[in-house]
Amino acid sequence: MFCMSTQNDVDLWIITGAASGIGAAMTHAVTQGGSKVLALDINPDLGQQLAAETGAIFHQCDISDPEAWAKFAGYLDDNKDVLGTPTKIHLNAGVQIAPPNAPMSDYQFQAMTLEGYRRMMGVNVDGVVFGLQTLLPRLQSGAAIVVTASLAGITPYSVDPLYAMSKHAVVGLVRSLGPTLAKRGITIHAFCPGGIDTALIPHQQREKDAIFMRPDHITTEIIGLMDESETGKSWAKVSEHKPRFIVRAPGDKTS
Question: Domains in the chain: how many in total?
Fold first, then answer.
C-alpha cells in the first residue's frame, strides 16, 4: 500500500497512461527512486496491479474527459496537506488510429473511422490539453512537465498520418507554452522518441525486423528532461545508443 506522508521533501509525480508501456516503466523507476506517484490510466485491472507492485496511488481516469480531470483536481485539492504539490508531470498516454492487430491499411487516412479518430485525438491531444488546464494552476515554481510526443511529431510518418498530426499538435503546444511557463519558473518539454517496444506497435511492423527501444531505457531520458534548464523544446531520441537531441522550431535561436 502507498504510504502517504505530510513531508514535502520528495517529488510528487503525476503520470498518465501509467498502467502499461512507457508509463508503467516510469512508475516503476520513479517509485524505486523514492518519489510519490499518482498513476492515471483508464484500465482499472492493470492500474491496480501497478499500484500493488510499486506503491503508487492509482486513479482510473479517462484523460480525454474534462469531467474526469475535474474529479482528479478535487482529489488533489482535498489531499494537498498530505500529498503536497505536484512537482513532476508526465503527460504520457497515447494511442494510434488503429489497434495493433489491425492490418497496416487500417492506419491510412482513407480508412479512418469517426470513432477511431475521436478516440485518438481525445487521448493524444485532449488528454494533454485538459491535463495542462487542470494541473498548471496547481504547480509552483520549479515544477517540470514532459509530454510524450513522438518522432512522428517532428517528421513525416506515412504509416499513420493522423497519429503524426496529433503528435505535431502537442509538439506545437509545448513549444508555444515554453516562454509563458518560463516566467513562472516551470519547464515543459516534448519527448519525441522513435519506435518503443510497447503494445502500441502495429503487429505487422514487428514482422519487418524493426529495432525498437526499450521502455526501461527511455525512463532515464524522461527523468533527465525533468532537470533540463531549456524549456519549450522538442527532444528526439532515435536509438538507445545515441543521446537525445533538440529539434528546434524555425526561428528558435536559443543556444
Answer: 1
